[in-house]
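Bug: token stream looks shifted between consecutive jobs. Job 1:
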Amino acid sequence: MRPVDQQVVLITGATDGLGRELARELASRGATVLLHGRNAGKGAAAARQIQEATGEELPAFYLADFSSLAEVRGLADQILAEHDRLDVLVNNAGIGTAWRGRSEREVSEDGYELRFAVNYLAPFLLTRLLLPLLARSAPARIVNVASAGQAAIDFDDVMLGRTYSGVQAYCQSKLADVMLTFDLADELRGHGVTANCLHPGTFMPTQMVLEAGVTPVDSLESGVEATLRLVVDPELDGVTGKYFERLREARAHAQAYDVDARRRLRELSVELVRAPAPA
């Protein structure tokens, strides 16, 4: 990888919590940080806070609501139009088991179960659209923020229309992120782009955790450290297709290693988002 101060890094979900603190740390090291969020006011505030904390230029902010695949496409179009290089994509944006105090089943603008749409389909589509830019920028990295909370996907009821649980919805979306990571690693092997994922920490004091009414366990700082490592650590040059829990490589849910399950998820995802099919 290039030195950090020569890198362009896109972080989704960067207006608060893990994403914002990761952006601040990277900006303090001289990286060109691109912030994404779904709230313009919070995005502007985050950019100012990062500038004030680092003394660097005001980071660019991109507005997109990941419950809309059209807005995901718009975000990709903006990045492709405005940047000739992207060294790292950090797929961090997501919603938890409860959102805005609601834990009942909700659907996205496109009619998909909301957590599956925001936590998985949006980064799936964004990554596919930005892959050509990442490949041209190689060596490059994709870092997917997953979770140790993983649950098997029932391909007969992916959208949980029959039986809904916020925990199941969240956990299956995070397993899908792991499965996406493993697929990307296989697809991109030998092309200079690596893909890894991680559980950054358990119940860090983020908006997602606080909205669910859960008492934090791990610190935000430890989560930033674990995620930052996958972004910048030179010892991970060429390392791909790994799942980490905090700083250690770990074993994901068994379904993540099921090649047929990954194929079914991949084919379903391409159909749902109408994205370019993997090579």
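Job 2, same session, no restart:
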Amino acid sequence: MPNTHLEHPEDLILTGDLSAIDALYSEAFVSVKIDGAPAIVWGTHPETKQFFVCTKAAFNKKKIRICYNEDDVFTYFGHQPNVVELLIACLKYIPRTEGVFQGDFVGFGGSDTFKPNTITYKFPEVIKEEIVIAPHTYYIGKYLPEMEAHPITGDMISTSKCLFVQPFVDKVATNIEAPNLKMDKGIFLTNKEATIAKQQINALIRNGQELTDADLIGILGSLQLANLYLMVTEMKHELMESFIVYNCPKSYINGEQVNQEGFVMNTKYGMMKLVDRNQFSYANFTQGKFQK
């Protein structure tokens, strides 16, 4: 699948795509969403065969900003001193490998505590490596803007200069079949209506407001769709609570320990993100340095 924005399962059902429910109960590869920033893309360029680093601007079709050296970094990102610093460090310290990868920049070594965006991460010991990156995606294809994204399912090898953080998620098998829902097709929204509805829902979350039946009925125009939205949200939360996570630094928001930013599920139905929106999304809207 292309490098696209991941959706929440409760948002996917707004247009009648109930496969999101099947995905919640299906076999899946699950990874932890690390709240690093910015996104870093690196690897061997498929056309030039040279090592490069960049932000997600690597996938631009017109304004191409690929950095092969420090001069390129200053040329394309000189107006962002913090990005210049970390991209130069990535040029120096990310190990050279075949392929193209993406991850989130967590921070520079020398500490056991990092706050790259909204979440503060606490590692069990001081990080001695120069940089810390949470890799999550590799790409296949011959033309960078059109490469297909795939989750990294194996371990990437850290070096003395670059620490790759890859928590492992054990998805508990429940052997529960997805509910077979028969919904009135007339309750669902068009793509345009769904886009507007998601903006209105995000506005409520941004204001710290808990989503209620009344709020959702007002936005979605249907009690049945509002109930379905809340039901899928509850399914998502139950699934997230069943996950067992290994090798993940402790996560905090405003000094309170939380269960990571969320998760990404890759299933035969596609990829989607699982996030506690009342907790993380609210904090990200109001505090995050790099909005996602």
